[in-house]
Amino acid sequence: MEPRSDTVQEDFNYDPDRNYDEVIMAQQRIIEKEIAESQPLISNLLTFDEIVEEYSDEDSVYRHKIEDLKGRYKNMRKTRGDGNCFFRAFGFSFLEKLLQDADGYKSFVDVVHKSKDMLISLGFPQFTLEDFYDTFVDIVKQVECPGTVEKLLETFNDQGLSDYFVVYLRLLVSGHLQANEESYIHFIDGERTVRQFCSQEVEPMGRESDHIHIVALTKALQVPICVEYMDREGLACNAFNFNPSDATDEADPKPTVTLLYRPGHYDILYPL
Amino acid sequence: MAGSALKRLMAEYKQLTLNPPEGIIAGPVNEENFFEWEALIMGPQDTCFEGGVFPAHLTFPPDYPLSPPKMKFTCEIFHPNIYADGRVCISILHAPGDDPMGYETSAERWSPVQSVEKILLSVVSMLAEPNDESAANVDAAKTWRDDRKGFEEIAKVTVRKSLGL
């Protein structure tokens, strides 16, 4: 192809009165909107045959790993890639599990009720906390009505409700990290305090979750999580268990929530 | 979720009325529309903006507080972190990732537990301590850096103008 002479680069004349930063941010909003229109926040149940189509025939590593998953899991749900996928995937999957676990539900409700005062004691202003807490509690209560998977799915695909639920999970992680500062300070990069890390990497919506967020959520809610890591290394997915207890001599408890990690993104897995 | 935004804005208005921070007055332009606020900010003591009263406008998005508001001074003000048209450009008005100015990693960012009060307090600090590393008004940043006296002169004129003198 002949190189075109009227390339963008030549046309570009810096206009000092134009705000380029805002143009870039506006473009980001458009991309986010496109993602929002094409992906539900939480999808219906999918089979691995549907997932495998995302990869080309030549992509033998990923195709292999999907075969590996098929041996251990029956289904998955995809979540929207908006930076909140870990929290949203966890939230939906956990409440879905509680539909079948009345005791687990009761002890979770206790943890939730205590959490608000804990967060206030850490210095979160009550008037900024209240709406998120109230929405969170309302959604958790949908489990016992008796709740249905369909109703939960509808709630988690309602952007407003779903986002408020995610905000409160983020606050629970922030609260746990701050209350146990000495255990986490050495895992924080960039010479930041735990408080700074929380206000920049945990509390804002859309900030992606790292190992430290998962560890903190597991411990804050006392819920074991298993993450299947699917990357380009090796032939099988690597399962990693996050446990609420620090005791190393105990066998790993059965995970309540299992997530699939592909670089930068979390989805929900359903064991066979 | 405009209903949640409204509820939150009403709670914040109540909070600001009951416990007003020093040097700040803020509230909805009219009680029919809680998504447009005006604020009056007093120039901080012992700075070149001391004595001034600077009016500003805040516009809240329908998904507030998930997203931050926008803030714009409606008076003339020459400052490194305020665009020539009055728009305020400080880190707390941006979620992490929205990085128009390459803020330092330690800078305070928007999150749903921030508030109007926190924003306005940050703006007061910004008036007292301009950040010329991430300038919205390059002229103002240069003057602040290279000609502090000149900057203070301009600020004093702004203060008088803000008082209608």
Automatic annotation (TrEMBL), chain A:
Keywords: Hydrolase, Protease, Thiol protease, Ubl conjugation pathway
Site entry: Interacts with free ubiquitin: 229, 231, 261, 266
Gene Ontology molecular function: cysteine-type deubiquitinase activity; ubiquitin binding
Any single GO BP term: protein K48-linked deubiquitination
Keyword Hydrolase: yes
Catalytic site positions: 82, 85, 265
Enzyme class name: hydrolase
One Pfam family recorded for the sequence: Peptidase_C65
UniProt keyword Nucleotide-binding present: no
Superkingdom of the organism of origin: Eukaryota
Reactions performed catalytically: Thiol-dependent hydrolysis of ester, thioester, amide, peptide and isopeptide bonds formed by the C-terminal Gly of ubiquitin (a 76-residue protein attached to proteins as an intracellular targeting signal)
This enzyme's EC code(s): 3.4.19.12
Residue ranges annotated for the OTU domain, each copy included: 74-272
The protein's name in its UniProt record: Ubiquitin thioesterase
Organism: Candidula unifasciata
UniProtKB/TrEMBL annotation, chain B:
Keywords: ATP-binding, Nucleotide-binding, Transferase, Ubl conjugation pathway
InterPro entries: Ub_conjugating_enzyme, UBC, UBQ-conjugating_AS, UBQ-conjugating_enzyme/RWD
Protein's GO biological process: ERAD pathway
Record field: catalytic activity: S-ubiquitinyl-[E1 ubiquitin-activating enzyme]-L-cysteine + [E2 ubiquitin-conjugating enzyme]-L-cysteine = [E1 ubiquitin-activating enzyme]-L-cysteine + S-ubiquitinyl-[E2 ubiquitin-conjugating enzyme]-L-cysteine
Active-site residues per Swiss-Prot or TrEMBL entry: 89 (glycyl thioester intermediate)
A GO molecular-function annotation: ATP binding
SMART domains linked to this entry: UBCc (SM00212)
Segments forming domain UBC core: 4-164
Xref: Gene3D superfamilies: Ubiquitin Conjugating Enzyme
EC number in record: 2.3.2.23
Pfam families from the UniProt entry: UQ_con
Stored PANTHER family: UBIQUITIN-CONJUGATING ENZYME E2
Subunit structure: Interacts with AUP1 (via C-terminus); the interaction recruits UBE2G2 to lipid droplets. Interacts with ubiquitin ligases AMFR/gp78 and RNF139/TRC8; recruitment to lipid droplets by AUP1 facilitates interaction of UBE2G2 with AMFR and RNF139, leading to sterol-induced ubiquitination of 3-hydroxy-3-methylglutaryl coenzyme A reductase and its subsequent proteasomal degradation.
Function recorded in the entry: Accepts ubiquitin from the E1 complex and catalyzes its covalent attachment to other proteins. In vitro catalyzes 'Lys-48'-linked polyubiquitination. Involved in endoplasmic reticulum-associated degradation (ERAD). Required for sterol-induced ubiquitination of 3-hydroxy-3-methylglutaryl coenzyme A reductase and its subsequent proteasomal degradation.
Family (UniProt): Belongs to the ubiquitin-conjugating enzyme family.
Protein name: Ubiquitin-conjugating enzyme E2 G2
Source organism of the structure: Candidula unifasciata
